[in-house]
């Protein structure tokens, strides 16, 4: 007897649209009419714009295992509202020998006309989804044009209150921004600092994080460059006065909704329509599509000050990048600060005031560079000096055969000791997932038979899916650790060959090959003042790290 997969989906838990039960009931009727067995798969509260759904994913896994011959759904848009996704799905099902049936649309995919009608229906399903999304977006923009706050993270300098309004006899709650006085004063200070002669985003961040001020963000963390940059550009802080109007009118291509007369200095400004959806994230629109409106919140920064900051930001942005800044080191990504634990990145600095003498590249702690010298007092280190010290040390140990033999024996023992418990943990986690999947399937069967109330099944289903998701995450992390660190023991011949290759050829390699080779040997490098701690992938247990010194002619610090 043939077996079918019944798939049902509902976007939101509302009374609108066909319920999960009705969808399943009609699909079951078709299966019973054709004398088919069936397996039920379903998803609650999940949109059809993506195929990333637990019930659907399980169905496709079972399809690959050959558990059924056909997929039956009530309506095509229950499967997908994306033309591309649906087209790819049909091709995938064809390759697996699984047919597709839509009860309401009544498609016959064995004929060219049936396939054409199916694809046309998927086009209209996608159109419907995009139309709904467009209506939501238009509604957000309409609210924006009225100066309404559309939600999101509360900007520094503001708080949010809830206000209830009565529209056409219906009470609606809306969020409104209000000034948070202590933070607003700090915002003003940031703008003033930036306009000073030595003012810059970097200097602002350094001062904000210094012991003298110790300002914290909304999340009670230290300030970073990107946060400071966004604050200095955010129109939300700008008071809607005449200077602000003239600036946006004459120096930007942004659409200004309000008239010049309305820029009377009473309220602040807001940007809207700045970003557009892109895959699972978003991208910034061109500034011609941005919308500038006067909001319902008070501004903090006068238009004149806001204008000066924007002009200085633009001027600094247009400065040519420093010569030599693009030069890197093959150790990039491996070096971390031994004082605070932050990454160390490459920066350039002139050898002297004479341009002809060129530039040196240095590893600098990002916390010290981007936030404050007070937070980290580590030294900068020249990239060529650090690289030479590490290369010389690796070449030296390459000549020690006993050291290499100890490395391999110790590493193989360590790998096996750590790998066995991880494999046991992986098997235990997989067993828990299998048990959850079995219970989920029992729930689905109970729903089909009507032996339990739907609301109880839905609640338990969500709990089980959450547990399954957590276990799958654990399983992914375990397998990733096994694949990354404990795949197999080390082969002596391969290792010796790698060492000899390093010793004999390193200086003749190009930049990318040096980088690859170093990454295959060096796990991490920590710089703490004059001391360098080198961790290699292959080291005896009793000599995990190797201490080197940056000072010339010194073996240790």
Q: Which regions have little confidence, pLDDT < 50, spanning 5+ residues?
A: 320-326, 552-556
Averaged pLDDT: 78
Q: What is the 3D shape?
A: flat
Strand content: 15-25%
Measured on Cα atoms, how large is the radius of gyration? 32 Å
Oligomer: single chain
Helix content: 40-55%
The order of strands across the largest sheet is: 2-1-3-4
Instruction: Quickly count the helices.
Output: 16
Q: Biggest sheet: strands, sense, closure?
A: 4 strands, parallel
State the end-to-end distance.
Answer: 78 Å
User: Which structural category fits the helices and strands?
Assistant: alpha/beta
Q: What is the total tally of β strands?
A: 18
What keyword list fits this structure?
alpha/beta; 4-stranded parallel beta sheet; 4-stranded mixed beta sheet
Explain the overall architecture:
- This protein has helices at residues 20-33, 54-64, 76-79, 83-96, 112-145, 181-195, 201-209, 225-233, 242-251, 303-317, 366-370, 383-398, 401-449, 454-485, 492-505, 511-521; strands at 3-10, 37-44, 70-73, 99-102, 158-167, 170-179, 255-256, 269-272, 275-278, 281-284, 291-294, 335-337, 344-350, 359-365, 381-382, 522-528, 531-536, 545-549.
- It has 557 residues and is α/β, with parallel strands linked by helices.
- The strands form 6 sheets. A 4-stranded parallel beta sheet has the order 2-1-3-4, with helices on both faces. The chain has a 4-stranded mixed beta sheet with strand order 12-16-17-18. Strands 7-11-8 form a 3-stranded mixed beta sheet, sandwiched between helices.
- The radius of gyration is 32 Å and the shape is flat.
- The termini are far apart.
């Amino acid at each position: 007897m043939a077996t079918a997969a019944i798939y049902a989906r509902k976007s939101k838990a509302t009374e609108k649209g066909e319920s999960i039960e009705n969808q399943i009931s009609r699909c079951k009727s078709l299966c019973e009419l054709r004398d088919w067995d069936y397996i039920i798969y379903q998803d609650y509260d999940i949109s059809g714009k993506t195929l990333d759904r637990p019930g659907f994913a399980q169905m496709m896994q079972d399809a690959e295992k050959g558990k059924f011959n056909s997929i039956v759904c009530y309506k095509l848009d229950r499967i997908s509202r994306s033309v591309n996704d649906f087209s790819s799905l049909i091709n995938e099902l064809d390759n697996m020998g699984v047919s597709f049936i839509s009860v309401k649309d009544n498609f016959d995919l064995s004929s060219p006309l049936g396939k054409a009608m199916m694809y046309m229906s998927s086009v209209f399903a996608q159109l419907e989804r995009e139309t709904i999304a467009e209506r939501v977006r238009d509604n957000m923009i309409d609210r924006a044009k009225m100066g309404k706050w559309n939600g999101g993270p509360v900007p520094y300098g503001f708080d949010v209150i809830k206000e209830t309004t009565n529209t056409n006899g219906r009470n609606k709650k809306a969020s409104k921004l209000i000034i948070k006085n202590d933070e607003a004063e700090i915002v003003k200070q940031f703008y003033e600092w930036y306009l000073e002669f030595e003012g810059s985003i970097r200097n602002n961040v350094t001062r904000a994080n210094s012991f003298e001020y110790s300002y914290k963000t909304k999340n009670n963390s230290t300030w970073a460059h990107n946060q400071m940059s966004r604050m200095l550009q955010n129109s939300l802080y700008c008071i809607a006065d005449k200077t602000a109007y003239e600036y946006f009118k004459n120096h930007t291509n942004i659409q200004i909704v309000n008239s010049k007369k309305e820029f009377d200095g009473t309220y602040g400004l807001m940007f809207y329509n700045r970003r557009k959806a892109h895959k699972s994230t978003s991208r910034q629109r061109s500034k011609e599509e941005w919308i500038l409106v006067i909001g319902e919140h008070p501004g903090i920064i006068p238009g004149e000050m806001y204008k000066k900051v924007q002009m200085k930001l633009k001027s600094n942005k247009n400065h040519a990048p420093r010569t030599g800044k693009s030069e890197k080191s093959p150790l990039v990504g491996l070096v971390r600060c031994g004082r605070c634990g932050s990454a160390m990145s490459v920066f350039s600095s002139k050898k002297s005031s004479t341009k002809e003498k060129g530039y040196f590249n240095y590893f600098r702690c990002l916390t010290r560079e981007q936030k404050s010298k007070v937070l980290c007092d580590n030294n900068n280190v020249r990239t060529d000096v650090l690289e030479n010290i590490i290369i010389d040390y690796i070449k030296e140990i390459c000549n020690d055969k006993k050291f290499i033999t100890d490395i391999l024996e110790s590493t193989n023992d360590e790998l096996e000791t750590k790998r066995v418990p991880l494999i046991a943990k992986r098997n235990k986690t997989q067993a828990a997932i299998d048990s959850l999947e079995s219970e989920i399937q029992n729930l689905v069967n109970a729903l089909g038979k009507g032996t339990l109330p739907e609301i109880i099944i839905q609640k338990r289903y969500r709990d089980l899916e959450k547990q399954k998701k957590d276990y799958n995450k654990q399983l992914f992390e375990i397998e990733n650790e096994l694949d990354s660190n404990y795949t197999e023991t080390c082969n002596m011949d391969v290792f010796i060959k790698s060492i000899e290759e390093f010793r004999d050829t390193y200086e003749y390699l190009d930049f990318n090959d040096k980088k690859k080779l170093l990454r295959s040997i060096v796990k991490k490098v920590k710089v703490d003042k004059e001391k360098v701690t080198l961790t290699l992938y292959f080291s005896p247990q009793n000599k995990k790290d190797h201490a080197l010194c940056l000072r010339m002619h010194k073996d240790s610090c």
